[in-house]
Amino acid sequence: MHENYMKNITLNQQKALGMFKKLHFKPGIPAGKITAFMLKQKYIPPDFFYEALLTELVTNTSVWLDVGCGRNLLPHDYELSKNLSNRAKLLVGIDPDLNINDNVFVHMKKQVCLEDFETSQRFNLITLRMVAEHVESPVKFVRKIARLTESSGLIVIYTVNKFGWVPFLTYITSFRIHLFFQKILWEVEEDKDTFPTYMRMNTKKCLNKVFIKNGFEPVFFSYLEEASIFYKLFKPLFWLEIKFQKLLTFTGLDMFKNNYLAVYRKLK
User: Fold this and answer.
1) Cβ distance 206 to 200 under 8 Å?
2) Would you say domain 2-266 falls under CATH 3.30.565.10?
3) DSSP, res 59
4) Taking Cα atoms as reference points, which of 172, 188, 171 lies closest to residue 180?
5) Crossing angle of helices 78-87/47-57, nearest 10°?
6) With 50 as the cut, is the pLDDT of residue 116 above it?
7) CB neighbours of 171 closer than 8 A, spacing ≥ 6?
């Protein structure tokens, strides 16, 4: 399955847009002001590109490991999470945090960090959704991924870009300040879903280096527009945030966008 599909991996704008509309626009129910505003600005949140890719990659032959899954497979889409879980042959979730025990989508779960995860199972699909920025030792981490991946297996990484302006501010500020602004801007009341960030594999160059060294080849890479700082706070600032991301696209300065999506294939 992956052998045939990997050559055709693209950033599927239309599919991501369709999923965005399906989730937020219900028949007979007016769309929220923020949602309608995003659509008017032709802005699609980056989560939908990751999810659109998963709908293509997950099949009934997928032996899937979701690293750092926490309590949710896809935090804002219960139905898609359920559908992908039912579709996969096997879905294993691991996370060092207790909240993994609340995850109802994975077929098997274990509260453990990847480096300490032991199993005889080998996976043809491993996903890391907003995990890479928390990796303290990329070499050790990717070596473990290599041992868990079968030949031609795919690794999907959706994470923040170290050179994006928001991740960069997160990186240079203290963890305590990060938590403070997270509570103010995103109304996060608890600290349990927030973890220290290291950004040691959060550039294209670093990611390619560590994965190629461990027997993988790059299959796909794309920077993603991401504007989420001011979307609940102040509409004019949210508009400016979106326009800034669009400007990066227009000028070809994609390397300064906040997020990226990458896929690697194990060679043998």
Assistant:
1) yes
2) no
3) -
4) 188
5) 20
6) yes
7) 162, 197, 199
